[in-house]
Amino acid sequence: MDHLKNNDMEEPSLKRFIVTIKFFTDEKFLSLVPSHRTYINYLINKGIIDSYAVSMESLRSWIIIISKTKADVKEYLQKSPLYKYWTFEIDELFIYDGQTYRLPALQMN
To answer: Residue of 27, 51, 64, 91 with fewest CB within 10 Å of its CB?
Structure first.
């Protein structure tokens, strides 16, 4: 079944947004990655980021963010040390599903 999964701790008014980021790199970019990862880990631990993926091959990344509005999502993005390297799109998700949101497979002993 496809559905938007809400964790018990989430407010019903929260939505999921996918952020598609295109970025460029320069000599300073790599020096900012550790502080960016610290910020991303903070947002993951707070339950704001649901998933985060980066492709150095295509210089793109994808982030699923749980928030009330697109404006709130943009505020989170602006706080990243890598923000100046990005152009991005924010889209509200209608369906978000995957193995993470399924019950564990039954294991017969």
So the answer is: 27
The CATH label, of 3.20.20.80, 3.40.50.720, 3.30.70.1060, 2.40.50.100, for the domain at 15-96 is 3.30.70.1060
Q: What is the pLDDT of residues 75-98, one digit of tens each?
A: 999 999 999 999 999 999 999 888
Any alpha helices (H) in 1-109, and if so which ranges?
Answer: 29-45, 70-78
Spatial separation of the C-alpha atoms in residues 93 and 38, rounded to whole Å: 26
Q: Would you kindly state where each structural domain of the chain is located, as residue ranges?
A: 15-96
Cα–Cα distance, 72 to 70 (Å, whole number): 5
